[in-house]
Amino acid sequence: MKIIKFSVRWLPIICIGIGVYFADLEGDIKSFRIFQRDGHPDEKKTKSDSNNSNIDSLETKKSWDTWRNDEQVYSEKSGSSGSSETTSGSGNSNSTSTLSPSDSSKLTAADYYLKASNTSDLHLKIKFYTNCINLDPDFVMAYNFRAMVKDELNDVYGAISDYTKAIELNGAEPVYFWNRGLSKEYLDDIDGACKDFKKACDLGYEDGCARYSEICEPLSNLGANDYNEKGMSDYDSKNYIRSIYFYSKAIESDGAEPVYFWNRGLSKESIDDIEGACKDFKKACDLGDEDGCARYSEICDTSYR
Questions:
Q1: Which residues face 31 on adjacent strands?
Q2: By the number of CB atoms within 10 A of the CB, which of 74, 123, 153, 275 ranks highest?
Q3: Single pTM value for the model
Q4: In contact, 89 and 98? CB cutoff 8 Å
Q5: Which domains does the chain possess?
Q6: Which has the closest alpha carbon to 113: 89, 87, 144?
């Protein structure tokens, strides 16, 4: 399994209000994996040999600098109610997790936000960001940072939901689109990822421009067979979800070629989407592919006929 590593950033966060200064917001190492699944089909799947490589991975980062456009918002939310744990005590970042009920009732959304930033426990981060959001549903940074923690905990769909909420609250922040694009790419939603990278680029985020140029622009000019070969390459790498994406693009370009349906059917079968696989084998059979007919007869229940 290929690992894409993300860089670590330390952010200075300056709270305007009573002049409380919070330094060194700890950034977590972001790890993204190209999603690969084990499979078993060994049937013929090629019309010709594949010589195209997978989309190259990018060693990149999930930015922790999203505060830059929201500093004023953060300051307004902080007001004059700085968290007592950040101005006194031993300085242990995890010591803020123990509070009496009376202490908890006095905390503001900004207090919970800072508590989340001051602990390395990912589950506590989720809890504190959630408390922050419950007290202030418009606290945009809390959604972004909670999403990043969810990514690290492999709750990628939950992360996308939080990034989407952050975008709803502040659609002018390119980092939110960039982060959501990375999560979509992880799920092999290439079209969705490219839209987000393009938006991040349009908003001035250079990494968005670079990623869009690297993986999106080359795909826009491919023919059906090119898509098929990319799908075959991903299939051979057991990246079945992304292979389905490329086979589907091939079918969009040329829906009369049975091999594309046959190949997509094999990928669907590999992820146990038997109903989807049977539809593709049936289509391949209808277009004259004998292997499609044989596979359909072999594995497809009568309920799919």
A1: 5
A2: 74
A3: 0.61
A4: no
A5: 3-45+57-220 (1.25.40.10), 224-304 (1.25.40.10)
A6: 144
